[in-house]
């Protein structure tokens, strides 16, 4: 009877997920990024929002925001290694007049595009705001290769392409394949980013 109780208790402990081995990779990522803010920006008491996660070079690319309420909000891109340690960071502004932000960097033989969305855009010709419906991004590279990516309006986009390229076209469409916005709308913004090493 005692052996049976011990076996049952062991089974219950396994099911309940005792121990750190059951912590999800998302929880590890959130913990590392919260620690980064605590150490580097201790006065930022905003809420951490993880917008996008992609596996990258045996680690993770993570787009996140933690808005303190001061100044202009940013999408920050973190590179974490396979131990969930942050090794690099860069940032891009949230969209203002255009309905999307566009940020590009080349790293380790990849082209990385990231940013977020508004549900309206300003049309300078008529000085009006119009609603947009964002469902898909079309990217055309300098070599003519192109790709469509489904996107989640709420969480922005994080696109990783094999090779380091200039981007010929970056267009946003709705479900009916009607163009909502394109790269020329953000041309005045400094879109080329570089990773900065994070000291550990």
The H/E string reads HHEEEEEEEEEEEEEE
The overall average pLDDT, rounded, is 87
Number of strands: 14
Task: Give the low-pLDDT segments.
Answer: 2-20
* Separate helix tally: 2
Task: Evaluate the radius of gyration.
Answer: 21 Å
Distance between the termini: 52 Å
User: Beta-strand level of the residues, as a percent range?
Assistant: 35-45%
Task: Give me the side-by-side strand order of the main sheet.
Answer: 1-2-3-4-14
Helix coverage percent of residues?
A: 10-25%
Task: Specify the biggest β-sheet.
Answer: 5 strands, antiparallel
Question: Helix/strand-derived class?
Answer: alpha+beta
Number of domains: 1
Morphology:
globular
Describe this structure as you would to a colleague.
- The protein has 200 residues and is of the alpha+beta class.
- The protein has one domain (44-197).
- The protein has helices at 2-16, 25-40, and strands spanning 48-56, 59-66, 74-80, 86-93, 103-107, 110-115, 120-123, 128-131, 136-141, 146-150, 157-162, 167-173, 179-182, 196-197.
- Strands 1-2-3-4-14 form a five-stranded antiparallel β-sheet.
- A hairpin with a 5-residue loop joins β12 and β13 (179-182).
- The radius of gyration is 21 Å and the shape is globular.
- It starts with a helix and ends with a strand.
């Amino acid at each position: 009877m005692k052996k049976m109780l011990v076996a049952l208790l062991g089974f219950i402990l396994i099911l309940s997920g005792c121990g750190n081995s059951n912590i999800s990779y998302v929880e590890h990522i959130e913990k590392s990024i919260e620690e980064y803010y605590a150490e580097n920006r201790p006065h930022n008491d905003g809420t951490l929002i993880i917008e996008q996660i992609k596996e990258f070079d045996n680690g993770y690319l993570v787009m996140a925001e933690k808005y303190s309420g001061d100044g202009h909000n940013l999408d920050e891109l973190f590179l974490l290694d396979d131990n969930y340690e942050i090794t690099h960071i860069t940032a891009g502004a949230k969209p203002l007049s255009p309905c999307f932000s566009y940020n590009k960097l080349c790293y380790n033989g990849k082209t990385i595009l990231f940013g977020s969305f508004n549900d309206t855009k300003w049309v300078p010709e008529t000085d009006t705001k119009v609603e947009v419906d964002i469902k898909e991004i079309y990217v055309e590279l300098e070599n003519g290769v192109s790709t469509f990516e489904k996107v989640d309006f709420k969480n922005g986009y994080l696109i990783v392409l094999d090779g380091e390229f200039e981007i010929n076209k970056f267009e946003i469409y709705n479900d009916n394949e009607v163009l909502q916005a394109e790269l020329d709308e953000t041309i005045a913004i400094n879109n080329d980013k570089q990773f900065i090493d994070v000291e550990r």
